[in-house]
Amino acid sequence: LTYEVLAWRLTWYQALKECGVRGGHLASVHDIQQNQRLSLIVKTDGFPLWIGLSNQDFSGSAYEWSDGTKLDYNVALAGSRTDFISGKPGPNCVFIAPDGAWTRTSCNAAVDGAICYNTTVTTAFQRARLQAPPEANGCPQGEGGSQWVQHQDQCYAFNMSFYNYSVHSMEKAEKICQAMDAQLLTIKSTEENDFVSKYLYNDPFITRRTWLGMTLDSQGKPVSWKDGSALVYSNWKSEASLSDGRSKPPCPVMMWDEGKWNFVNCKTTYSRVVCKTEARSAGTSAALVFFILVLIAVLLVAAYVIYKKKRGYFSSTIRYERTLDDMDTSSAVELS
């Protein structure tokens, strides 16, 4: 485990992106030794530095580590839950001050730096991804290093570079997917639910929540997916309820750590975005090429048949034959 200090002013989201492009995460703390080590780094630097702790659901849920690790070490937080721009409650992120205090403030506030960490420890699934990256031949072309992931006949945009290394409101998430000619994540089977939750578990980012593209009726009850398909499969938490006042207006999310679905407040919650679209299968492309070749062959045969039938119109029926008359024969002179 190695730490790196980003020594310039940046927001928490910018710090998260910078750590990510370096192949790491914002620092997380899980015991008193790690806390002492990070506090020493901050004290030596002399400026407050971001760590990976945040609360993206400002209706009152628990804080989360951006690297997906458990919140198993607690420190009292100083500071305000008020957004410094709007003056209203908003996403809160944590930095460590030079005196060692953990302080929360707006995630959009600029702090003097951040602490990233890198590790060589990976899960078996992550090692498998490094050895054999998923093929995405039927998926849209990503820009830069962004790649879609193909699973069966569907393509998924998991990479956070698609979303500017940030989490978003439900409204913003839908607009992002529409701009990509895709739909917000839908789940049609147990197998797909397991695939998505496993992928997100092994590629954590900011929060456990991921928006689901589901249509709700006027009472807030699920009726269908936003792509128009029926809501045949579901995986709700047993305690998922629309009666919880904090979840109104309700929006559905998947919790990737257990693959269960739940409701959160649409207006006070930021969640991860995963866009999804159908893959263009190789079989479909081959069939299209074959169809075009057959069509060309049929047109050529039809043209030949028409030509044969109309041949008389294209060639003359008059025949010319040269005959020899008396004048012609007399023109032959025998030489002796």
UniProtKB/TrEMBL annotation:
<feature type="transmembrane region" description="Helical">
    <location>
        <begin position="286"/>
        <end position="307"/>
    </location>
</feature>
<dbReference type="Pfam" id="PF00059">
    <property type="entry name" value="Lectin_C"/>
</dbReference>
<dbReference type="InterPro" id="IPR016187">
    <property type="entry name" value="CTDL_fold"/>
</dbReference>
<dbReference type="InterPro" id="IPR050111">
    <property type="entry name" value="C-type_lectin/snaclec_domain"/>
</dbReference>
<dbReference type="InterPro" id="IPR001304">
    <property type="entry name" value="C-type_lectin-like"/>
</dbReference>
<keyword id="KW-1133">Transmembrane helix</keyword>
<keyword id="KW-0812">Transmembrane</keyword>
<protein>
    <recommendedName>
        <fullName>C-type lectin domain-containing protein</fullName>
    </recommendedName>
</protein>
<keyword id="KW-0472">Membrane</keyword>
<feature type="domain" description="C-type lectin">
    <location>
        <begin position="1"/>
        <end position="108"/>
    </location>
</feature>
<feature type="domain" description="C-type lectin">
    <location>
        <begin position="151"/>
        <end position="275"/>
    </location>
</feature>
<dbReference type="InterPro" id="IPR016186">
    <property type="entry name" value="C-type_lectin-like/link_sf"/>
</dbReference>
